[in-house]
Amino acid sequence: MLFGLALFVALAWSSQASLHELEAVTDARSRSRSGLLLAAEVMSALKDVETGQRGYVLTGDEHYLDPVEIGMRRLDDTFEALRAMLADRPQARLDTLWTLIDHRVALAERNIADRRAYADEDSPWRRRLEEGRDTMDRIRVRFAAIEVMLRAEIEARDRSVDALRTRASVFNFLLPLSGVALILAAWSLLQRERRRRIDAEVALIAANARLEDAVARRTAELQQALGEIEAFAHGLDRSIEDERRRLAREVHDQLGQLLTALKMMVHRALQGAPGREQDWPQIEAVLGEGIATVRRISAALRPPLLDDLGLEAALGLACRQFAERTGVSCEATLADAGRLSANQANQLYRIAQEALTNVARHAQAGRVRVDGEAVEGEYRLAVEDDGVGMAPQARSSLGLLSMRERAALAGGELRIGAGAAGGVRIEARVPLGAAGEDGG
Question: Is there a contact between 38 and 74 (Cβ–Cβ < 8 Å)?
Fold first, then answer.
C-alpha cells in the first residue's frame, strides 16, 4: 500500500511537472511568435519610411510624407519591444540591426531635406537613392536571419510539446496500474490533471488563432494599402497629364497669341517711321523665335497630335524632331495604335520619349527605330538603337525606373535587352481590352 501510494505520488508529481513544462514551452513558443510579429511590424514601419520618402523625392508630393512620419513614430517603440523580446538572444545582433535602421532613417530624412532644397538631376538625394536601397537590402537580410532563428525556435518548441504529450500519455497508462486500492484516488487525480491539460491546449489553440487572425488582418491591411497606393499613382499620373494639357493650351493659346499680336503691332508701329525700317527684320526674328519657343514648350508639355491624331502621328513627329535635333536617323512604324486606350497611348508615348532621350544622351547611335504592333492580345512598343549598349549600372537609373512605372500604370510591363545591331532594345507590353482606367 505504501509502495503503491509512493508510486502514485511519484507518477502524479511527474505528470504535474510535465504540465508545467508544457506551459513553459507554450509560453516560450508564444514569445517567439510575438517576436516574429514585432519583427514584421518593424519591417513594415521601415518600408513605410522607405516608400514614402522615395515617393516624395521622385514626385515632390507632400502627401508621401504622411507614411514617413507615421513609420518613424512607430519604429522606436516597436523596435524597443522587439529588443526586449529578444534580449536573451545575442545572436540576433539587434544593436547592429538598429545601426542600419538608424542609418536608413537618416538617409530618408536627408533625402527629404535635399529634395526640398534641390530639384535638378545632380541633387544629392538622387545620388543617395542607391545607398538607401543597399541599406534596405542589408536590413532585410538581418530580419530574414531573425525570422529563421525564431521559426527554428518555434519548431523546437513544437517538438518539445509533442514529447511532453507523449510522456503524459505514458503516465496516464501507468497510473491505473499503481494498485486497485488507489485506483479511485488515482482516477480523481488523473481527471484533474487531464482538465488542466485540456485547458492549456485550449489556451494554446486560442492564442494561435489570435496570432493567425492578427497576421491575416495585417496582410489584408497591407494589400488594401497597396491598392490605395496604386490607385493614388493612377490618379496622380492623370492629374499631371491633365495639368500638362491645360498648361500647353494656356501657353499656346494665350502667350502665343500675345506674341503674334505684339509682332503685328510692332510691324504697324514701325511702318512709316523714319529711320526704323532697318530694325524690323531683327525684331521680327526675335518675335518669331519667341513664338517658336512657345510652340516648342507647348508641344513638350502635351503634344497636340497625341490628342488629335493619336499615338502613331505623335511618335512620327517626335522621331522627325529627334532626327533634326540630334542628327541620328529615326524611323517610326506603328500599326493598330487605335486599339489603345487614351491612358495607354499617353504612357507609351512618354516611355518612347524617355527612351529617345536616353539614346541621345548615352547610346552614341547612328540609327534608332520605333516599332509598335498588336500581338496575341497585347500591344508591343519597342525602341531599338545601334549604339554602344547599356552599362550595368544604368539598369537602375531613374529614367528606366520611370519607364517601368509608366508601363505598370498602363497595366503592362517593360523589357530591356540587346538590340539586333548591338545597341539596346526597350520594349513596353500592355494588354489590349484590359487597359484599366482611361484618361490622360
Answer: no
**Strands of the 378-385 sheet, one edge to the other:** 329-334, 367-375, 378-385, 424-431, 413-418
DSSP secondary structure string for all residues of 318-376: HHHHHHHHH--EEEEEE-SGGGS-HHHHHHHHHHHHHHHHHIIIII--SEEEEEEEEET
Q: Give the helix/strand (H/E) hosting 8.
A: helix 2-59
Note the pLDDT tens digit of each residue in 352-390. Answer: 999 999 999 988 899 999 999 999 999 999 999 999 888
* 406 close to 207: Cβ distance less than 8 angstroms: no
The separation between CA 426 and the C-alpha centre of its own chain, rounded to angstroms, equals 22
Q: Is 418 helix (H, G, I), strand (E, B) or coil?
A: strand
Q: Fold for domain 309-431?
A: Heat Shock Protein 90 (3.30.565)
For a pLDDT cut of 70, what percent of the chain falls above it?
72
Instruction: State the pTM of this model.
Output: 0.40
Note whether 432 and 378 are within 8 A (CB): yes
Domain residue spans in the chain?
2-181, 309-431
Tens digit of each residue's pLDDT (9 = 90 or more) over 383-417: 999 998 888 777 778 888 989 999 998 999 999 99
Question: pLDDT > 90: what percent of the chain?
Answer: 18
Q: How far is CA 439 from CA 217, 340, 353, in A?
A: 34, 11, 19
Specify the amino acid at residue 71: G
pLDDT for residue 2: 65
Q: How far apart are CA 182 and CA 7, in angstroms?
A: 10
Alpha-carbon distance of 167 to 139, in angstroms, equals: 42
Residue carrying C-alpha cell 505504501: 2
Residue 80 C-alpha cell reads as 524597443
Number of H helices, E strands in the chain: 11, 5
Cβ–Cβ under 8 Å, residues 343 and 238? yes
Distance from CA of residue 79 to its chain's centroid? 23
